[in-house]
Structure formats: structure tokens, C-alpha cells
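Notes continue from the previous slide.

Worked example: a multi-chain complex. Inputs as given:
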Amino acid sequence: MSVKRNFSNDRTFLIDTTRCTGCRSCQVACKQWNQMKAEETTFFQGEGYQNPAHLSENTLTAVKFIDGWRYGRNEFAFYKEMCMHCNEPACVSVCPVSAFIKTPEGPVIYDAKRCIGCRFCMIACPFGIPKYQWSKGLPLVVKCSGCFSRVKEGLIPACAKACPTAITYGSRQEMINEANRRITAHPGKYMSRIYGLEEAGGTSVLYLSSVPFNELGFKKVTQRPLPSLTWAALRFVPTAFITMGGSLAFISWLTNRKERLRREKEMGEDQKASGKEDGQ
Amino acid sequence: MTAMKKIVSEIQDFHIFLRILIVLVTAGLIAAIARFTFGLGATTNLSDVYPWGLWVSFDVVTAVPLAAGAFVLGAIVHCFHIKKLEPLVRPAIVTGFLGYSLVCLGLLLDLGQPHRGWHIFAYPNLHSPMFEVALCVMSYTTVALLEFLAPVFEKFGFHLPLRFLRTLELPLIVLGAAIATLHQSTIGTFFLIAVDKLHNLWYNPILPLLFWISAVFTGMCIIIIEAVMVHRYLDQPDETELLATLARIIPWFLGIYLVLKVYALFFLSERPLFDRPGLTALFTIEMVAGIIIPLIMFLHKRIRKDSTMQLRAAGLVVMFGLVLNRFNVSMFGMIQKNQQIYYPSAIETIVTIGIIAAHILFFAVVARYFPIFEHHPEDVDYAIPDGFRRVKKPLTIGKPS
């Protein structure tokens, strides 16, 4: 795609799942700030105490609860699922009407006024974040905006503000440094990996964990920026068009010319023949 | 009133099969109205897990290559001057035009905000495969409409526009083939973004190329099926000889496809390949029944010259090599392990059946009222005319109405 932007100053969430207590104040703050409808839920629809069971048109972030007997002890771990605000987002690249925008501040935002509702973003997103208003007659997509309206005004996102323990918010470079500092300071506590550092080409949400990420429900995602995958094919479009059109036009011209020459020759011979007849 | 009576008496004259199709199309229309009244969520089985279902998989991803006959045959006949195939061109163009119009309709049904379709022009995104396909499908439908207008003008005896269209004929064919190349392949590009979702058996970087090649051989197979059917059921002349010529071209494309597919599988795909028995079975059926068996069949001269065998081989390619392939890529291959299974709702199914019925019905109706078969190359001079006034041979005009 275009010239690579430097993402190190993008506003970034560092979510330390080892510090998360599962209080869900981020969920509540998100609902309040974004004025999302409440969902009627019951416990144990999803895994453990997770509630609601998954993200939906009314829930932009949710804490996943993972509990069970692991490594010889009762493990209780949490994973706040939300939009990852990729550096090079798949949703931005596939949207036919440019309804998604990667802001210079970092958050990936969605313009509901443009959306035609094709749901390509939902197919494209490697983290399964965009959700659809299936309950509506003319549905739109909903997705975490990284509280862009707050970030623009110099505030921090609602969930980060409400979180008592686990979320740190700042520039991407600072957050990476902080994450690395924690990993080196407590090598036994953390997995020596930052989820989101390389995933999908890097994201503006970084996670630290004490249990392997896949056990927490993190998806295994390619390290290539996703837009580059389609662009690898799409960039040949003008070439394909000109080559195909040009070669077919050239071939038609050749065959037509051959045909005309043949006919002219025939006609000439006809005239000669008729001329001879006239002469005799 | 009299016009209404005339229509009713015409319909009473139709074959029972066509009247059944009319019922199916009406049912589809009613289901489509229900979809707009009650919304996507209430009428379909789509969900956040399956944002794309039957309508995208069949009405768009599968229907577009099924309508590829027009551009393939147009290029073969007019650009490569294999003129004896000319009688097959018009039926193919009608199929193409109908097919694309119905694709547009299916797309509109599937959109959440169909009234905002024009946003494609207002807020274009050049990096989006969907934008590219939308533009191409719209422009190709226009090109196919212009090509389709020729028999319409002939029917009504509009000479001047007819001559104008004939001047445009070759440029339109070339333009149509170029546009079709783009969107047939770009539909494959759609699924390149679904890395880690689409199974390795189908995900590879040359998917767009494979989509284009399979559209080309499917286009030719559809022409064979159509010509055989039209001969059997619409009392048109037997074109087996011509189809044998066409059938000689198909194995080339099947062969190239097979080689590329195997190459992509072993050198360009991630591993593991055969970890899911269900998907492996689907893949095997697709490759063996849809590509390898028909390839062997089309390689035999005896089979190529036999009407029934032509139909069978072409049918295999279409059913398994194309339809199954497109469903594998856009639906089955995207299902993750332990994921709930999607099946289309009644309304989704009725709409799709309605669209298929509409295609067959409209084709039969067009064939009944417009000169799409009575058109033979000996009647028309196909060299590019030098000017409007100098058309050397008389044009074929339908019976004056």
C-alpha cells in the first residue's frame, strides 16, 4: 500500500491480563459512554462467568473468563476482548465505500453514514470484531471506536479510565517499552511474548498474559498486514485490464485485416473473371 | 384490459414447465418482499459467525462465473474469428445479460443498506476488492445490455441504432472480456483477506487466477449445456458439431487449471492440508468429479462428438468443478473447527430458487419473442463497417410486428 506510517506514537492500550480482576467495569463504562442497549443475559452462556457470552451489536467489549484446573492449580484468567485497532486494518482496506478510517491518533473508526451493509469487514477482520445489527430492518455495522471522540479531546478511552488495575494507555512505543519492562522484571510471571506486537502487522492493543495466549482464547493470527494479501493481487488490475483489452483488440485487428484482405482478393478475382466474360 | 387478456392467453400457451417457473419466481419475489419488510436478521440464518451465506455464495460468487459464457464465446468468435461458432453467441449473450442482472438483484437483497448503493461512486476505495467487483459488475451489465439490445432492435426493426450497435460490437466484446477478466478474478481476491479463516486446501495466493480460469471453462460448459437443452426442449437445430469444436478448447483450460491447482497446493499453500476429513472429502469430490473426470472425457474425440456425453461432461464441470468449488471457498472452507453449522433459512432458499427460475424463465421467454437463434453468420457481414451508410449485406430483421 502507500508509504508506511510510523505507528510508534499511536494511542495504544496495554492490557495486562495478570492484573485484571474481572470486575467488568470496562464493560459498564463502554456501555455508558457509547449509550449501548443492555443485553438480557444469564451466567454460563459462554465459558465460565463470562457475561454476555460474546460481543454483539450491543456489546463492544467483554471480559472473557477462563477458569479451570490447569498446571496443577485452579487457574482463573481474564481476557478483555475488543477491537485491536490494527496498524494496517483489514476492514479499512476491504470496505468498498471507505466507511472505516485509521485515524492518525491510532483508533480505527467507522462512519455509519457511508456503510452500505455488505459485511465484507466481518469476513476480513482476523479478530472477528465488527458485528452487525441483525435486529434492525436497515442494519449497520458496530465496532469499538477506541473512544475516538474522547481521545480527540485529550481524554483516555472510557474502558481505560474505568479500569482499576489492568489497562495502561499511551503511545505505542511507550506501551511496548512498558510491556518489555514488566516481562524482564518478572520473567516467571509473564509469557515472554506481547500479543499484538506483530499480530496482523501490529495492533494498537497489546496484551500480556501469564498463560499461553491460545488458552485464553486469543486467535492465532498471521503476522503479515492483511491488506497486503489482497493488494498483492489487486495491484495487477490495471495491468490485467490493459493486457487483456489490448491483446484482444490487437488479435481482432489482425484477424479482421486478414479477413478483409481475403475478401478483397476474392472480389478482385471475381471482377477479373467477370471482366474476361465481358470481353469474350 | 385487452393487453392483460393477451398476456394471460400467451401464458396459457406456455409449456407447463414454464408455468411452474412463473410460480417459483413469484414465490421468490414474495420472499424478497418479506426480506425487506422484516429485515435480514429475521428472515435469514445469517449471524455474526456467518455474515455471508447462501446469497453471497450462490447469487454472487457462483452466479458470476455461471454467466461467463458471453465474454468467453464473444472473444472466441469475434476476436479469434472462429466464426462457425457464431450461432452460439447470441444465446450466450442473453444468458450473460440475464445472469448479471440477477447478480445485481441478489447483491441488492444481501446489502443491509441497498438504497445507499451509489455510495460506491461517492466514496470509492481503490484498495477494496468489493469496490472493484461492484464497478465491474455494473459496467459489465451495461455492456451486456448493449450486446443484448441487438436482437431487440432487430425484432422491432430499428435500423439506425442497430447499425450503431454493430459499429460498437467488436469494441464491446473486447471491453466486456477485459472487464470480465477483472471481476471474475477479483471475486477470488475477496477471499485472500480471509487468511486463517479459509482452509489451506483453498487458500493460496493464486486464487484469483484460478477463479478466472475456472470461469472461462465454466462459461464454455454452460454454452454446451444451454445449446443441448435448447435443442431438446425449444426445438432449435442440433449444434453438436459446433459444440465439439468448443469442447476441444475446454480441456486446455481444465488442464492448466489442474496443473496450477496442484502447484498451488504443494508449493504455495500453508500446512496442514488434510487435517479435516469433511473438507478433504469435499475437496476430493471437487477435483475428481469436477476437473479430472471431465478432463479425461473431453480428451476423447468420441465423447466430444456425442451430444449426451458432451452434456454429461459439461454438467460435471459446472456442478462439481465450479458450483462446489465456489461453495467450498466461500462457505464450507470458512467453517472453523467446532463451529456451529450454517444452513440457509426458508426465505433465503426460496429467493435463490426464484433467481434460478427467473433466469431459465426469462431465457425461454426471450428465446420465444426475440430472434436469438435465427441468427447465422452467412446473413451478416461481420467486418467492421466503414460507415453507417455502407453496410454491404442486408441485415437479418425479425418478422415485422
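Summary box: The first helix of chain A runs from residue 25 to 34. The longest strand of chain A covers residues 62-70.
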